[in-house]
Design a protein that fits this description.
- The chain is built from two helices and eight strands; from the N terminus they run βββαβββαββ.
- By secondary structure, it is α/β, with parallel strands linked by helices.
- It has a single domain, classed as D-tyrosyl-tRNA(Tyr) deacylase (D-tyrosyl-trna(Tyr) Deacylase, Chain: A), CATH 3.50.80.10.
- The radius of gyration is 15 Å and the shape is globular.
- Strands 1, 2, 3, 6, 7 and 8 form a six-stranded mixed β-sheet that branches.
- It starts with a strand and ends in an 8-residue tail after the last strand.
Length: 152
Amino acid sequence: MRAVLQRVSQAYVEADGRITGRIGRGLLVLLGVGKQDTSNDVDWMADKIVGLRIFADENDRMNLSVADIRGGILLISQFTLYGNCRKGKRPSFDAAADPETANRLYEYAIQRIGATGVDVQTGIFAASMQITCTNEGPVTLIIDSKTPGSVG
């Protein structure tokens, strides 16, 4: 499972001309599900996202999590995080999970993050969406549940 996290002061997602999710201060999370991913990957990823200390404390040090600041998470399904661009000019998405599996694990991620008490907002799975955010910092991290050296 892969995620791109952006620390934001605000973010929202629009689909079919309407806003489907909006947060103030918190995290914009683009989440990709791979063929090998299971609920264990979701559990690990949800804990990592909610607990990652990337917000400034009173000494301006990255020492607080999104839960600590009572921020929100805008969680967007993003299969293109599994795009392989090594060969040719067109990405291959062979490593991405099939839509049924991806949606099931994405929905589980929504539940798992929501169970922590953090407000989780979403886009619409497999829809064409427009995302607007104000990146704070900027702070952007890439997390992979299966790659050594990932934030972990």
